[in-house]
Amino acid sequence: MRKVLFVLLIVGLVLLLIPQSRLKANIIKGGTGDRITGYAPADTLIDSLNVQIFIPLKIGLYVGNDVEFDLDAAGYPPASFPHYYDPTSPSGTPYEEIQVFSNSNVLTWYLDAMGTDFDASIPITQLEWSAAGAGSYTAFASSGTYDNHTSGGNTSGWADENEDYRFKCEADDPAGTYNTYLFYRLYAK
Asked: Which CATH architecture is the domain 59-188 placed in?
């Protein structure tokens, strides 16, 4: 019992010697760059900093593959003209894998396409496109003219805008190998 009283007496004396400001529980706040101090165990220190994330406003375009029409492998000549041929490579829909990206909630993106004539005798308008699987074909615009294929807003990641193609073969198309380029452009406004 004497030991307990002695310990209590010592604790009381220590408490009398410590300034009262050190015994109160204080919350001491600081900000970025502040070096704050306090008394342990009575004080609580709270410091803060600003965290900023910058996500740029972006659009993106991916066109997946080249397309080939081998009319000999597809059964040329047909029984009648005009005759529509699907690509032989790739061999199934979608014939063209196209993806777009936009992270804007306020701008609209536009996907346009154009091509140039295969040859003076085979205009680009003999090549037709459709949204993949839709089966509703439209001729590509006259050579050198961009035509809108689709548009939209925030895509929530990369969005598929795949297309199918077909070639309208005419009876007077001359034999030969013909090439052209299709150009897809994506912009937002």
From this structure: Sandwich (2.60)
